[in-house]
């Protein structure tokens, strides 16, 4: 059996719609083994949206690898241990896709290169901003091209923390993409290009004082925040307590605030505020560090059946 550990991820990071994302230290474990025949899928915790047949996202990701390399297991057992909350903007689908591709590549003899796996994952997800950090870790700037992903990975220092607010409701990426406008105004494109560029420079040089300005966005948040009644309250309280920017995580509904050395005071202040505020949803709160490793092998016993 092969066990793969794959991190959560947060995409967009403010202004970088579909091109910036970071892996976070919150993990799913995907265990796979070849069996004599059939497909057996188990999951814990389980959820009605986790398919137990060929429609399962991990299985579909694995199948893209088998199709690519021309090797198929006789049968397959997949066990999913899920820590990443589903459909909350924390890259649960990208973890399934990148982790499934990584596991299938190991099972089928490691024929694909890292670049090939990154491309397959981005193509399947439709954009590279969750799948690339889920595959290789770190904070990634990435663009999906015709046949490859052009990307740069930045190793995030532990000094930078990611304060994650997770509400008790789901918001599917598909729905949150469909409500975006087909066209945007030129001035909004200019607004975002400036902020995304500033973000890349600020994060890689450690100039965190620029982050509150660099994480502003006009491409998706103004539209999506209407689906998240507490959005402004959470962002404002984060900034008030000293966050270096606060924004929607991926397609939402989770919100992330960037915090540095003073994260313990920030954490205490936020917990007190959340306990005393009137909010439309219940919000879980946790402080995470970036994961700089991506998908990794947790353990390998035997790989596939003898042929
Ligand atoms: N552990 C899992 N096992 C199988 N399928 C999963 C698992 N986690 C997520 N999925 C699938 O992915 C879907 C959620 O994907 P979606 O893109 O809507 O949200 P997300 O990836 O959590 O958020 P975002 O893309 O904004 O970060 C679920 O409905 C389910 O079909
Ligand atoms: N960039 C994507 C991330 C979610 O998968 C979006 O915002 O729709």
UniProtKB/TrEMBL annotation:
Gene Ontology MF, one: ATP binding
Protein's UniProt keywords contain ATP-binding: yes
One term under GO cellular component: cytoplasm
Entry's localization field: Cytoplasm
Protein name: Homoserine kinase
Organism: Caldicellulosiruptor acetigenus (strain ATCC 700853 / DSM 12137 / I77R1B) (Caldicellulosiruptor kristjanssonii)
UniProt keyword annotations, A-Z: Amino-acid biosynthesis, ATP-binding, Cytoplasm, Kinase, Nucleotide-binding, Threonine biosynthesis, Transferase
Enzyme Commission number, as recorded: 2.7.1.39
Domain spans labelled GHMP kinase C-terminal: 207-262
Binding site for ATP: 85-95
Lineage: Bacteria, Bacillati, Bacillota, Bacillota incertae sedis, Caldicellulosiruptorales
Role, per record: Catalyzes the ATP-dependent phosphorylation of L-homoserine to L-homoserine phosphate.
NCBIfam families: PRK01212.1-4, thrB
GO BP term (any one): threonine biosynthetic process
Domain of life: Bacteria
Family to which the UniProt record says this protein belongs: Belongs to the GHMP kinase family. Homoserine kinase subfamily.
Statement: the UniProt record of this protein carries the keyword Hydrolase: no
Enzyme class label: transferase
Alphabetized PANTHER family for the sequence: HOMOSERINE KINASE, HOMOSERINE/4-DIPHOSPHOCYTIDYL-2-C-METHYL-D-ERYTHRITOL KINASE
Record's catalysed reaction(s): L-homoserine + ATP = O-phospho-L-homoserine + ADP + H(+)
Pathway(s) of this molecule: Amino-acid biosynthesis; L-threonine biosynthesis; L-threonine from L-aspartate: step 4/5
């Amino acid at each position: 059996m092969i066990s793969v550990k794959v991190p959560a991820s947060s995409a967009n990071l403010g202004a970088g719609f579909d091109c910036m994302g970071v892996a976070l230290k919150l993990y799913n474990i995907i265990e796979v083994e070849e069996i004599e025949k059939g497909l057996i899928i188990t999951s814990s915790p389980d959820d009605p949206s986790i398919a137990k047949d060929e429609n399962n996202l991990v299985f579909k990701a694995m199948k893209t690898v088998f199709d690519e390399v021309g090797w198929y297991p006789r049968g397959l057992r997949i066990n999913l241990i899920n820590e990443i909350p589903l459909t909350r903007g924390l890259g649960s689908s990208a973890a399934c896709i990148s982790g499934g591709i990584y596991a299938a590549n190991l099972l089928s003899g490691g024929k694909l290169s890292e670049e090939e796996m990154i491309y397959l994952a981005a193509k399947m997800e439709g954009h590279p901003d969750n799948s690339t950090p889920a595959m290789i870790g770190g904070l990634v700037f990435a663009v999906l091209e015709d046949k490859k992903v052009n990307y740069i990975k930045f190793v995030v220092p532990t000094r930078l923390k990611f304060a994650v607010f997770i509400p008790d409701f789901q918001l599917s990426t598909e729905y949150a993409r469909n409500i975006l406008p087909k066209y945007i105004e030129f001035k909004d494109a200019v607004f975002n290009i400036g902020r995304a560029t500033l973000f890349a420079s600020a994060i890689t040089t450690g100039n965190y004082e620029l982050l509150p300005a660099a994480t502003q966005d006009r491409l998706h948040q103004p539209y999506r925040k209407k689906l998240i009644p507490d959005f402004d309250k959470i962002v404002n309280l984060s900034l008030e307590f000293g966050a270096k920017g606060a924004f929607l995580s991926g397609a939402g509904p989770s919100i992330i605030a960037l915090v540095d050395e003073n994260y313990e005071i920030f954490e205490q202040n936020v917990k007190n505020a959340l306990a005393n505020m009137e909010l439309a949803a219940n919000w879980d709160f946790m402080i995470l560090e970036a994961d700089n490793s991506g998908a990794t092998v947790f353990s390998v016993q035997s790989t596939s059946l003898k042929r």
